[in-house]
Design goal:
CATH class of the largest domain: Alpha Beta
Oligomer: single chain
CATH superfamily of the largest domain: Glycoside hydrolase, family 3, N-terminal domain
Shape: globular
Strand order of the largest sheet: 5-4-3-2-1-8
Order of helices and strands: HHHHHEHEHEHHEHEHHEHEEHH
CATH architecture of the largest domain: Alpha-Beta Barrel
Largest sheet: 6 strands, parallel
Distance between the termini: 62 Å
Number of domains: 2
Strand content: 5-15%
CATH topology of the largest domain: TIM Barrel
Helix content: 40-55%
Number of helices: 15
Length: 389
């Protein structure tokens, strides 16, 4: 159609000039005008044809083309990548991933690098003796990631009040009880966002908190807890974890299943708290459920004993508490034990979480050799690291 139109116009031009006498100048003007007209006509016609073809293309059943095309990609899905990686790991590599340990000094020595790499350690906790200044901490965490493992968990206790490692945190003097009693949810959010941002800037990626225990004045956890009311504590925990998530740092609410209703310090002895599951759900577990509902990645499990759940083992070593977390509360993240050296009675480790321990190398080695990790938890741990660190 377009070709016929152009041919017609050209013939009309010849016919016109055959029977009409024009000046040379007039002929040139007319010739230029006709060229422009033909170009414009071609452009418009091409655009219309393209529109018609596009409408037809949209109506095609592209699924037929896709389904009949042979699969040529060999790229693994993320889950397949993780599972393949775990399958290739040695037992020692799997064991090391499940430990978070302390390290000496304010700088990373060659000996420490060698120890962490040889034992495939998955996480480090920074203590007071590791902290000197902002620049020094950044250098230390950078060295840990560059010289040991870029996916290393680097954790710290920075609750405020009596539990502080970073003294240049401007809110460090404020205890949990002070925040819960005197500050609004919005103010608590701002304080925790500031704190998490400060830690992230230092190269720290895990904050061992908030304390989710509900405690009254009879408890040694009173000042470290936000409230004696389960609902208020749950609201605060949800606010804090949201602030940490916004800042890009991983939270570890503690100490599951609740350490508030005891005057016994688990650093010294196993506290015994005889409560039914329903009693726990109505009280102790509410803040932890709020944390889970907010999408928390870790939960710290304590060394308490509840004879109504497991009369032999503390929570940190009993899978009965893992069942409560996973099956009853919908938690699909990773548990971290409280320091395994506490009470002096826990000799081994656990196979299904992160073993946090602040001990000499010899004792850490004994714990490493005491476990046979469950591969599903190694997969879960690696997936979290690759996605969020």
């Amino acid at each position: 159609m377009v070709v016929n139109l152009v041919e017609f116009l050209y013939m009309q031009r010849l016919k016109y000039f055959r029977f009409n006498i024009f000046s040379k100048h007039r002929f040139k003007q007319y010739n230029n005008m006709m060229r422009k007209f033909i170009v414009i006509t071609l452009v418009i016609s091409t655009a219309l044809l393209g529109a018609i073809l596009f409408e037809g293309y949209k109506k095609l059943d592209l699924s037929l083309i896709k389904d009949n095309r042979p699969a040529t990609s060999t790229r693994l899905s993320f889950d397949d990548f993780i599972n393949t990686k775990v399958e290739k790991m040695s037992l020692d590599e799997q064991r090391g991933q499940m430990f978070m340990i302390s390290i000496p000094g304010t700088t990373l020595s060659d000996q420490t690098i060698e120890y962490l790499k040889d034992n495939h350690i998955g996480g480090v906790i920074l203590l007071n003796h590791n902290i000197q200044s902002p620049e020094q901490v950044r250098n230390l965490t950078n060295d840990l990631k560059e010289k040991v493992n870029p996916y290393l968990l680097i954790a710290i206790d920075q609750e405020g009040g009596n539990v502080v490692r970073i003294n240049w945190d401007k809110y460090a003097p404020l205890s949990a009880r002070t925040l819960g009693s005197n500050y609004t949810q919005e103010q608590i959010y701002d304080i925790e966002f500031y704190r998490a941002t400060l830690l992230k800037d230092l190269g720290i990626n895990v904050l061992l908190g908030p304390v989710a225990d509900i405690a009254d004045r009879t408890s040694f956890m009173y000042n470290r807890s936000y409230s004696s009311d389960p609902t208020k504590t749950a609201d605060i925990i949800q606010t804090i974890i949201s602030a940490h998530q916004e800042a890009g740092i991983l939270s570890v609410p503690k100490h599951f299943p609740g350490h508030g209703r005891t005057s016994v310090d688990s650093h010294v002895e196993f506290p015994v708290i005889p409560l039914t599951k329903q009693e726990l759900r109505n009280h102790e577990l509410k803040p932890f459920q709020a944390a889970i509902d907010t999408g928390v990645d870790f939960i710290m499990i304590s060394h308490i004993i509840n004879p109504l759940i497991d009369p032999q083992k503390p929570a940190s070593q009993s899978q009965e508490y893992l069942k409560i977390l996973e099956q009853d509360m919908g938690f699909d993240g990773i548990v971290i034990t409280d320091d395994l050296r506490m009470t002096g009675q826990i000799k081994g480790g656990i196979n299904w979480g992160i073993n946090l321990t602040i001990e000499p190398e010899e004792q850490i080695g004994q714990r490493l050799n005491s476990i046979t990790p469950e591969e599903q938890y190694i997969s879960k741990l690696l997936a979290l690291k690759y996605q969020k660190l």
